């Protein structure tokens, strides 16, 4: 199987595993992450199959989405072998998707990702900021019955992974301070940092306008 055929199979596999979710992890998210990974790769000397495969697969073993992450991982590994992805590439893909989440960067336990993983992580994070990031946060918050805003809730610094996962009283606006505004400084590649600049400003403008309007309600 050539790499184009492998990628088509991987896209199908990803699609079959992602279509259930409607909380910001739909296949539209995957498509944008793949497209961005392709774009960022143009400036980097990365293995394109590993990069795009990791982009397609980065959410299929997420413990927020699957009941049994180990079973999902075993299934994925068998699938990669079946479509003749080399053991070295397969190992790299599995390492990347297990270690690239935002939660992994908390607790000071961040794992150094190979270049392909850095590109996919940047692509995933870029999809959480800017206009799309705002929309996804509202969509997610609505689905999880979060309040829109509560001026008494302050951003928490230096949370542990557990605390981050179990965050109570999260509001949609607070999520920007907890996570979205911090993404810009966590990006790995210069091209992603460049793209993040406008998106950051757009979110800051949005928050400032939001708070002005909220005040006016009082
Ligand atoms: P990923 O696994 O793709 O890195 P997450 O599962 O953490 O991302 O989140 C998916 C989307 O939902 C992101 O756009 C993220 O900003 C948003 N989101 C996550 N947690 C919250 C929250 N508590 N409130 C609002 N939006 C959230
Ligand atoms: Ni994602």
From TrEMBL:
Enumerate the Pfam families for this protein. Answer: HD
Superkingdom is: Bacteria
Domain HD/PDEase, chain residue ranges per copy: 22-138
- Molecular function as annotated in GO: hydrolase activity
Q: What keywords are assigned to this protein?
A: Hydrolase
InterPro entries in the record: HD/PDEase_dom, HD_domain
Does this entry carry the keyword Oxidoreductase?
Answer: no
Full protein name: HD superfamily hydrolase
The uppermost taxa in this organism's lineage are: Bacteria, Bacillati, Bacillota, Bacilli, Lactobacillales
